[in-house]
Each structure stands twice: as C-alpha cells, then as structure tokens.
From TrEMBL, chain A:
It is a multi-pass membrane protein. The chain crosses the membrane at residues 20-39, 60-80, 118-137, 143-165, 191-209, 229-262, 274-296, 302-320. This is Iron ABC transporter permease. The keyword S-adenosyl-L-methionine does not apply. Signal peptide: none annotated.
TrEMBL record, chain B:
The keyword Repeat does not apply. Pfam families: ABC_tran (PF00005). It is found in: Cell membrane. It comes from Glutamicibacter nicotianae (Arthrobacter nicotianae). This is Iron ABC transporter ATP-binding protein. It comes from the Bacteria.
Length: 326, 251
C-alpha cells in the first residue's frame, strides 16, 4: 500500500458537476413558481408590486420549508436508526400543532413569534417523549417504530381536535395546520428564515449525526457524547418543524420520501448528502405546490394534500421494498 | 495493560459480576471464555466504558476508565460490540473513516486517509471499500467494523464475539487478521470467544470466567487442561493433542 494511490481512493467532494445540474434544475422549478399564478404580473400596473409581495415570498417559503422538513426527516432517521420516521410519523408535527392551538386558545393576540416558540417547545417535548419511549422499550424493529409514532401522533392530534372543538377553534386550527403556501405574503413569512440557521447548524455537526446513526455503542466508542447529540438533534428538528408548522402547516411525508431516495442513490453520509436532501426537498415541495396551484385554477389545492397522496404511495413502495430485502 | 481492581456490577437480578481483580498484560490476544451468562461480554463492555461499574476501578494503560473523559479514552481503547440490526448505508471506506473520529472530528487529513487505507488493506477490504455496508455479507461487514476500530489506532482493542455469524473459513481468517494486528501493530486485543479451540490456538492468554468471576487466567498451555475446562464449562471436556496443538473435545 503506497500513498500514491490515495487521491484515486478518496471521493468525498461535496461540490460536483451533478450537484451543479441539480441546482440548475431546482432554479428552473423556482422560476416556474415565480411566474405561475392567477394575477397577471406583467400586464397590470401593480404587477411588480404583487410579484414582490406574494410571488417572491411564496417561492422563498417553498425553498426554506421544503429543505427544512427534508433535513429534519434525515436527522431523525439517523438518530432513531429507522428509515420510516420523520416529523409527521413521530407525532412531532401534532405536538407543534397542539402548541399552536394552546396559544390560539389562551393567548390569541400573541405575536407570531410567541406562537411559534410555544409550538417549538411542544415539538421538542413531544419528540423527546417519543425518543425516551423508544429507548425504554428498545423497539428497533423497523416498522414498529413509525407505527408507535403515528399512534402517538394520533392521540395528540385527537386531543387537539377535542380541545379545539370545545373551544370553538376547530376551523381556524384546520386552516393553520393544513400545509399551504397560499397565504404566504411579505411580512408574514420572514420567521421562516430561522430554518436556514438550522440548516447551517446541521451541516456543521453533520458528522456527529452520522456517527450517532451507527448506534450508541459505536458513537460512545469514538468518544461522542451520544445523549448530547440526541438532544441537539431533537432541538434542531423541533425548531425546524415548529417554525414550518406555524408558518406553512403540515408537510406530510416530505421528510420520509427525500432522505430515502437520497440514501438509495448516495448512501448515508450526512455531510455530503445534505445539499442533495435540501435540493430534492425543495424540488418536491415546489412541484407539489405548482400542481396544487394549477389543477383547479383559479383556485388552489393545499400542498399538504398533494404531498399526502404522493407520500403515501412512496411510503407503501418503501414498505414493499423493505419486505423484499428482508 | 488492563487492570481491574475488585470490580463488581449488579447487571440484573440474576446476573452479577465480581468482585473481579485481574491484570491483562500488554500485547497479544487475550481470550475471554466461559459458559453463557458468565459475564464475559459484560466485563468487556465495562472495560470499554459502555457500561458503568458499581464498585472497584478499571484502568486501561494507566487511565481510570470511569474518570477519564470519553473523548480521550477513544484514543486509548476501542470496543466493538456485536453487530446491531440497523445497517447504515455507508461505504466501507466511510465507515472505517469514522474510526478516525476521535483524532480528526470528521475532518480527515491526508495522514488520516493513509491510516484508513492501511486499515482497509490490512483486513483485505481493498476491493470492497467503495461498496455500501448493506451490500456486503455478514462476514465482510464484520471485517469492515474491525477495520474501523483498528483505524482508531488505540493500543487496546476490545472485541465482543467477532466470530459470531462467521463460517469456519471466515472465522479462521478473522483470527489470523487479529493475530497479525496484535503482533505487527503491537495492539493489545481482548476478545470474547465461544469456541475454546479458537482461543487455545490463537490467543496468547486465556481468561476463563464463570458466574461473574474470573476462575482461571493463564497461557493456552495452562488452561487447556481436562479438569480446568470441565470445571469452567460444566461439561466433560477432554483435551487431546491435535496436529496444530491441543484440542478440546466435548461432544
């Protein structure tokens, strides 16, 4: 073994030609998003104003929310060592929703930031409960974990519904939580930029999450504080999910589809995968939003509906594939 | 050198370890043998600080395992437990690279890459290094994990039943690799083995455990005796001369 063969053996470049192509494709999609809509932005006098107030914010929101949910799913899958978890199959989204509802009922005049903070706190607590439960019962069987998560989420969701019903908030909660980019306008979406910070944080500590994905014992063996990484990961997921749930609503299955597709093609090295996970997350969200905006023009279908249909199909495909592999 | 000073641990209501006092010398392979539930894996896990101890102290190369920072310990002792169910989709090279984590924190230098390559070549994984772990056979995957702990470059390496799930050929190859690692790379390897004959042939020292206590410690020649093995394994064992050294017959 000589060191002259080394360069050929090392392949860890993050920026490649393929990635550049991917970025280009996503940019094209985003351009479509910018110029799709009922309002004639070129013909009318206030077209430029409408463009700045609705189209640009909406497109930025697509980028941020899509990337955030896809990354949350990826980190969650590494931390639980399970391919089927993501914020909507572990109850995280439902907890964030319950947090939001609590604010709507008790502090209806609170600022968006305050509502969001409470949603984040609820998402964090709920996800921790789920993780602690997993540790206690050591359910590592791949299918049991999301089933437990979905059940937990349903219980929280049912409680929220009952709570909303008895406080006459059911309708407004439904509107808040149905994932939709329709109401994204200037002045109401800017807090979404918080998830950009989450993305940077995940990139910086990416290796720790990958090591944690090898299991607690291997992580401890290489000197990683496993619990600390779990807490950090949960906090980042909670922030991303909380912010997106409050500003956009549910984006079901996004965190499930994207990391699984990327993993199939590129493996599980988080650092080199992150750009791809972000891109694919953005692409899928944008496509679903474009479909939602155009199929019943001039009306819109919430993006969560399209994602739900698409996600369910991919989820079933993954299940069948898993059974074949064994 | 690994030193255990009256170490004890209540593992569960039925399994308890110790008090164990033991010195495992530097260099060579030390095999932990004994019947099921003797506490071999538990003891190994405690030495590798994956499990806390109730009483006593464990020192590896002079560092107290329960008082030394886990990050620093990762450069002194590495431990590999039995394979877990979840198989991450990392390539062999990426996995072995994470063995360098205690040294590089994920930012691999040229020197790290060379150690990774050496470790991969040492376990004959050169052709498989770009393959994903879930595309490998159980034996190949086991070898990749061993390459990872070797790349960690610690003086002491603890392996919990690395021959589990390996067929005859791969078990022999694995033991030969470990023997070379002990001799050529000067590692102190402590290994839990089920097959007493593997221990008798490849180990430099055998540590026999029973009911949570160390009952015998010595060279294979000292341990491979009818009375000792029969007593440890609670079944009649005859040691007969084989073509390559003594063999325990217990069928």
């Amino acid at each position: 073994m000589t060191s002259t063969t080394l360069p050929a053996r090392i392949k860890s470049k993050v920026l490649t030609g393929k990635l550049a192509l991917g970025i280009l494709a996503v940019l094209v999609l985003l351009a479509f998003s910018l110029f799709t809509g009922v309002y004639d932005i070129f013909g009318k006098d206030d077209g430029a104003m409408m463009f700045a107030v609705t189209r640009i914010p909406r497109t930025i929101a697509l980028v941020l929310a899509g990337a955030a949910m896809a990354m949350s799913g990826l980190v969650m899958q590494l931390l639980t060592q399970n391919r089927f978890v993501e914020p909507t199959t572990t109850g995280t989204t439902e907890w964030a929703g319950l947090g939001l509802l609590t604010m709507l009922v008790f502090f209806p005049t609170a600022t968006l930031l305050a509502k969001m903070s409470v949603a984040i706190a609820f998402a964090f607590i709920g996800t921790m409960i789920f993780f602690l439960f997993l540790q206690r019962v050591s359910l590592k069987a791949s299918l049991t974990v999301p089933i437990v998560g979905i059940m937990l989420g349903s219980v929280v969701g049912a409680f929220s519904t009952f709570f909303a019903l008895s406080t006459d908030k059911l309708q407004s909660m439904g509107i808040w939580l149905a994932g939709s980019f329709t109401s994204v306008i200037r002045g109401q979406y800017e807090v979404l930029w918080i998830v950009a910070i989450v993305a940077v944080a995940i990139y910086i500590v990416a290796d720790r999450f990958t090591v944690a994905g090898l299991g607690e014992e291997i992580a401890t063996n290489v000197g990683l504080n496993y619990r600390q990484v779990m807490l950090l990961g949960t906090a980042l997921i909670a922030v991303a999910t909380g912010v997106v749930t409050v500003v956009i609503g549910n984006l079901p299955f996004l965190g499930l589809i994207v990391p699984n597709i990327v993993s199939m093609v590129r493996g599980d090295d988080l650092r080199s995968n992150l750009p791809w996970v972000c891109l694919l997350g953005i692409a899928i969200t944008t496509i679903c939003d474009l479909v939602g905006r155009t199929i019943i023009m001039p009306f819109e279908v919430p993006v969560s509906l399209i994602l739900g249909v698409l996600g369910a199909v991919v989820f079933i495909f993954l299940l069948l594939r898993q059974r074949k592999v064994g | 050198m690994i030193t255990l000073n009256s170490v004890s641990k209540q593992y569960s209501s039925t399994v308890s370890i110790g008090p164990v006092s033991l010195e495992i010398p530097t260099g060579g392979i030390t095999a932990l043998v004994g019947p099921n539930g003797a506490g071999k894996s538990t003891m190994l896990t405690m030495v590798g600080r994956l499990l806390g101890i109730d009483q006593g102290s464990i020192e590896v190369s002079g560092y107290d395992v329960s008082k030394t920072n886990s990050k620093d310990l990762a450069k002194i002792v590495s431990i590999l437990r039995q394979e877990n169910h979840f198989v991450t989709r990392l390539t062999v090279r990426q996995l072995v690279g994470f063995g360098r984590y205690p040294h590089s924190k994920g930012r691999l230098t040229q020197a790290d890459e060379e150690i990774i390559s050496r470790s991969i070549d040492f376990l004959d994984l050169g052709e498989l290094e770009a393959r994903y772990l879930d595309e490998l056979s159980g034996g190949q995957r086991q070898r990749a994990y061993v390459a990872m702990v070797l790349a960690q470059d610690t003086d002491t390496v603890l392996l919990d039943e690395p021959l589990n799930n390996l067929d005859m050929k791969h078990s022999v190859v694995m033991m030969q690799h470990l023997q070379r690692a002990a001799r050529e790379l000067n590692r102190t390897i402590v290994i839990v083995l089920h097959d007493i004959n593997f221990a008798g042939h490849y180990a430099d020292y055998i540590c026999a455990m029973k009911q949570g206590k160390v009952v015998h410690f010595g060279t294979p020649a000292q341990i491979m005796q009818d009375e000792i093995l029969s007593e440890v394994f609670e079944t009649p064992v005859n040691v007969v001369p084989g073509p390559n050294g003594p063999l325990a017959v217990y069928y």
